Structures are given as C-alpha cells and as structure tokens.
Amino acid sequence: GGGAKDRSFGLNVKLQQEKDYWIGRYFNGVEPADAMRYFWNLYHNSAPGSRSLSSLSNKVMNFLGHSWPALGWPCGFEQFKNHNLRSLKNKGEMLLCRGLDAKTVMKLVKDLEGMTKGGVKLVEDHSLANELVVGEKVRVRSLKDDDDDEDS
Question: Percent of the chain scored above 90 by pLDDT?
Fold first, then answer.
C-alpha cells in the first residue's frame, strides 16, 4: 500500500459504555450470549450522553453518500451488521465504514467528535480489500467453469 490513495482505513466506533447501558437496562447487567439481543437498542436508541448508531451512520452518509455500499459494505446493511457482531460482543466496538483513505477518515473523526462516550478512531482495516479479492477469485473461477461447459 502507501501513497495518497491508500484506501485501507476505516472508522471504528467505541460503544462499550452504550452497550453496558442497554445490558443494564434490559438484561439486569448480564450480557446475553447473542449480541443481536442488544444490537437494535444500540442502533436505534440514544444512550445518555451519546447518539444512536443510526444517527452516526446518517452523519457519515451525509459525507460519503446515502447507502451502505458508500460506507464500504457492498452487500448492504446486513453485511455491516454481521461483520460487526463479534467485535461488538468481544470489544464493544464496531467498524462503521471502511475502504477509505486516511484523510477522509480523519475528517469523519472530527465530524463525529463527542457524539459517543468512547469516541471514534481511525483504524487500519484491510477487510474490504480482502473480501473483494476473494469475490474476484470466486467470480473468475465461475467464469472458467462456464467455459468448460461450452467445450464439451
């Protein structure tokens, strides 16, 4: 990588305090095994002193474009959610957007300052590039398979 157009950065949102708040409110402070049980609370509702994840994503979309693919999730919201559930459970963090250059992420960090208790940070992230490479290999393989069929 390297260079001005290195798009291997993402924006990480730290949500441990918000997560603890919802777990305290709905699960008597005992974290459910399935992160989906509290994901929607974090997504739709503001915790004290913090904006909801949906309002953070709206703010980011105002800058990057109003779609999940614009945030680096080519398969949409479900992909964003599924990619992040383990990280939300284990670390209280979610990768809101990815596949961006560092300068863009730094601007977003500034825009989202103070919107959550734990804050947001620039992270190096190669997951989008890796997924695209794997996807391309799968696509090329299926094209090759089609060619074989025509020969017989």
Answer: 81
